[in-house]
Design a protein that fits this description.
The chain is of the alpha+beta class and about 400 residues long. The protein has a domain of about 150 residues. About 25% of the residues lie in helices and about 35% in strands. It has 6 helices and 17 strands. It has a 15-stranded mixed beta sheet that branches. Strands 16-17 form a two-stranded antiparallel sheet. A hairpin with a 6-residue loop joins strand 6 and strand 7. The chain starts with about 25 loop residues before the first helix and ends in an 18-residue tail after the last strand.
Length: about 400
C-alpha cells in the first residue's frame, strides 16, 4: 500500500524587528533629532565662546564708565582679564588723574587691581568679594593754587569700588604699595613717602555675625622714606554712622635728614643728625575721639656753624639757631632726646589738643623721666587691640617704661 506524504508549510515565527528592518521614516526621525541636538549644542558652544571673547571688552567699557563718575578726576585702564574658574576679573594699569589744573602725578595708579569671590565666606553662608591692589601708588599734592592741589576729596570712591563688583566687598588687600605727600611749588620740592606698603582690611561685612561692634580689622606695615619701619593696626565698626574705632601706630628710627625737604619747606630748619620716633594711640566712639600723639627726637642736631654761617639769609640762620638752642635746652640729657605727649580729645573731624599739657610733657621728658617709643598701656592690649610681642607693642612690666 503506497504511503502518502503530506506537505506542511513552515510555521512563521515572530521575531522583533531590528533597526535595520525599521521603516525608513522612523530612522529618519531619529537621525533628525540627534542632528537638532548637535546643532543646538554647537550653537551654545559658539555663543559661549563669543561671549567669553567679548567679555573683557564689555567689562573694560563698564569699568571705564564706572570710574569716570566725577568731574574732577578721570580714570584710564589697560587690559581686562576674566578668570571664570575663580570668579574673578583683573584690571591692568589703572590710573586716576585730576583733570583740573596741572598736577604731574595721578591721584591713584596701580599695576593691577583684582576683584574676586571670597570663597571661604561660603562657609559662613555669605556671598562676598575681595579686592587686591598690586604695586599701587597714592599721591597727595599740596600747592598754593587749589587747582594744583590734589587731595582726592569730592570723589565717590567707595561707591565706585562697590559698583565694580556684583557682590559686597568684604576684604581689601594692598601689596607693595606706596603713599606720597608732594609739594612741587616749595623750594626745595617735597616728596615724603611710605614705600613697601602691605595692608589688609578684613571682615567689612561681618560675615561671622560677630556681636562685638568693632568687627573690622586693619593691619599695615611700610617703610618710611625706604628706611624706618611703620606699623599700623586698627579695629573699627563699619556700620556706625559716626566713626568708632581703636587705632595704634608706631614709627621707629626715621633718619631725620631724609625729611629735610619737608623741614626746610614748612619749618625753615635743616636737620644735621638725629632720628625720629612716633607713637599714636586713639580711641573713638560715635565720633568722639580721645588719645595722644607721642613724637620723639633722638640724638638730634640742628645747628652746624660751618654750614649755617655760609647761608645768605641771616633770618634763616637766626631762626635755626633759636630752634636748635631751644631743642638742646629741653633735651633729656641721659637719653639725648627731645619728646612730649600731645593729648587729643573732641570731635574726630577736628580734635582739640591740650597745649599746656603738651608743654608740661616736654618739661617732664627733659627733667623728670624720658618717654620711650612705647604705648601707654602696660600689656599687649591697647584699646582692645591685641598685639603680639615683636609687633607694634613690645610689652614691658609696668607699662610705658621710662628712664630718669
Amino acid at each position: 500500500m503506497p504511503v502518502q506524504v503530506r506537505y506542511l508549510p513552515p510555521r512563521r515565527v515572530w521575531m522583533p524587528q531590528t533597526d535595520e528592518k525599521k521603516p525608513p521614516v522612523e530612522q529618519k526621525k531619529r537621525r533628525s533629532r540627534w542632528r537638532h541636538v548637535g546643532i543646538v549644542f554647537l550653537f551654545l558652544v559658539i555663543l559661549f565662546t563669543a561671549a567669553r571673547l567679548a567679555m573683557p571688552y564689555a567689562v573694560r567699557w563698564y569699568v571705564n564708565q564706572t570710574i569716570n563718575q566725577t568731574q574732577l578726576y578721570e580714570g584710564r585702564i589697560g587690559m581686562v582679564h576674566i578668570h571664570l574658574w575663580r570668579g574673578a576679573y583683573s584690571i591692568d594699569d589703572v590710573r586716576i588723574s585730576k583733570v583740573t589744573g596741572n598736577v604731574p602725578v595721578p591721584l591713584f595708579a596701580a599695576k593691577r587691581v583684582d576683584f574676586a569671590m571670597q570663597w571661604d565666606a561660603l562657609l559662613h553662608h555669605k556671598l562676598v568679594g575681595r579686592v587686591l591692589m598690586q604695586d599701587c601708588e597714592l599721591n597727595f599734592v599740596d600747592a598754593g593754587d587749589p587747582s594744583q592741589s590734589q587731595t582726592g576729596t569730592g570723589g565717590p570712591w567707595l561707591q565706585i569700588i562697590r559698583d565694580l563688583f556684583p557682590f559686597k566687598i568684604n576684604a581689601a588687600l594692598v601689596r607693595n604699595g606706596s603713599i606720597h605727600f608732594r609739594a612741587y611749588h616749595r623750594d626745595p620740592p617735597v616728596d615724603v613717602y611710605l614705600s613697601q606698603l602691605d595692608a589688609s582690611i578684613e571682615n567689612l561685612t561681618n560675615i561671622r555675625d560677630e556681636t562685638a561692634p568693632l568687627v573690622t580689622t586693619v593691619n599695615a606695615t611700610a617703610l618710611a622714606m625706604d628706611q624706618a619701619r611703620l606699623e599700623y593696626q586698627m579695629k573699627l565698626d563699619p556700620f556706625s554712622y559716626h566713626p568708632s574705632f581703636d587705632l595704634a601706630v608706631r614709627l621707629l628710627g626715621l633718619d631725620v635728614q631724609k625729611i629735610n625737604s619737608l623741614a626746610r619747606s614748612y619749618g625753615g630748619i635743616d636737620f644735621e643728625h638725629g632720628f625720629f620716633d612716633l607713637v599714636v594711640e586713639l580711641k573713638s566712639r560715635e565720633g568722639l575721639v580721645e588719645g595722644y600723639v607721642k613724637p620723639l627726637f633722638r640724638h638730634i642736631r640742628i645747628i652746624d656753624l660751618k654750614k649755617d654761617l655760609l647761608k645768605d639769609d641771616p633770618l634763616e640762620f637766626f631762626w635755626e639757631t633759636v630752634v636748635g638752642v631751644t631743642a638742646d635746652l629741653l633735651k633729656n640729657r641721659p637719653r639725648d632726646q627731645l619728646a612730649t605727649v600731645i593729648p587729643m580729645s573732641g570731635d574726630v573731624s577736628g580734635p582739640n589738643t591740650d597745649i599746656l599739657a603738651t608743654i608740661g610733657n616736654i618739661l617732664r621728658n627733659a627733667f623728670i623721666r624720658a618717654y620711650l617709643p612705647k604705648f601707654q598701656g602696660g600689656s599687649g592690649e591697647v584699646n582692645k587691640l591685641n598685639f603680639g610681642r615683636g609687633s607694634i607693642i613690645e610689652p614691658t612690666a609696668g607699662g610705658d617704661s621710662e628712664q630718669r
